[in-house]
Design a protein that fits this description.
The chain has helices spanning about 1-20, 25-30, 35-50, 65-75. By secondary structure, the protein is mostly helical.
């Protein structure tokens, strides 16, 4: 039974050492182990926001869509996203 705890601690120490020495992701270097939860929550975020929190365009000062565009541009990835696809436009006519 003690060998399971030793194995778990060894794995966590190995992941922490890797996180501190890698150079690709600053969040993992700054917050080893805990930084992995951020990436996991970003991956599961759309499902959580669908039922619990807010839409993609309700946050301040920047919406989640704008922040996603900024992150993709900073990483030199594809930054072509449809900004208007989630927006609910009012259909009021003024004549």
């Amino acid at each position: 039974m003690i060998w399971i705890a030793v194995l778990a601690v060894t794995i966590l120490v190995g992941v922490a050492i890797y996180d501190v020495t890698q150079r690709q992701r600053a969040i993992l270097r700054t917050f080893p182990i805990v930084g992995h939860f951020r990436h996991w929550l970003e991956a599961v975020g759309p499902e959580l926001r669908q039922y619990i929190v807010t839409d993609n365009d309700e946050e301040r000062p920047f919406s989640r869509d704008q922040r996603r565009w900024i992150y993709a541009s900073a990483k030199r990835e594809n930054n072509y996203f449809g900004f208007g696809s989630d927006t609910k436009w009012s259909c009021s006519q003024t004549t």
